[in-house]
Amino acid sequence: MNNPHISIITINYNDKVGLERTIKSIINQTFRGFEYIVIDGNSSDGSKEVIERYKDKIDVWVSEPDKGIYNAMNKGIRKAKGEYLLFINSGDELYDANVLEENINTIHTEDLIYFNLLQVFENRSNVHEFPSKIDYNTFINGTIGHPTTFIKRNLFNSIGLYDESLTIVADWKFFSQAVINHHCSLKQVKSILSKFYMDGISSVNSDKTNAEKQKVLEECFSEYLRLNKLEKFAKTVKNAKSIRFLRKLGILKFIDEI
Asked: Mean pLDDT over residues 181-198, rounded?
């Protein structure tokens, strides 16, 4: 497909059941004006046979060894021709067959366009709405979701591809750098775009996730980290019993301005 507006990328490794679910949710869209790319890591579980079954509706696919999740995602980025990229990785789904057609007119101009996410747990589901204001504090406490965010292709030219030295949070690092360091433009759309199944690597490995995030914060956002610590210290001081007592006496009126 020449110069598509959107490229949808799916990466997979040995998850043939999840891969087929993902592929079906994408190729059955009522809107078809997009490029579809599947990057498989040389799976041995029958995933390649699943891709072969649907290859007529997949624009680009490869099945070859890779060096992990973000190496595979970077392969997809390099192959993509779309103005905007969306990652719907193996096992996850677009919300329903009409979701692209209903929202395609919202995907223009801004660098990052993010939607709501349906989180699917074993016995329940939950609609997660990301904050309307995205700043440093957003990334201290969470992130925006790659299955619900259209990324303007040019951002990868200015920021770089996903950091392959990270195994879980390279997408979080990319989004945080885009917003905080590169002041990219954002747009929130308050409708559900995707279903995310809460059994992925970052969902079940919180210790490693937090360790990788802390490493990125120290390397890329040390100034913000120091300011955050100072702010916490100021709040602790302000709420101390002795300070509250002195403030009531009018001795430390300035403390209320902190």
From this structure: 95
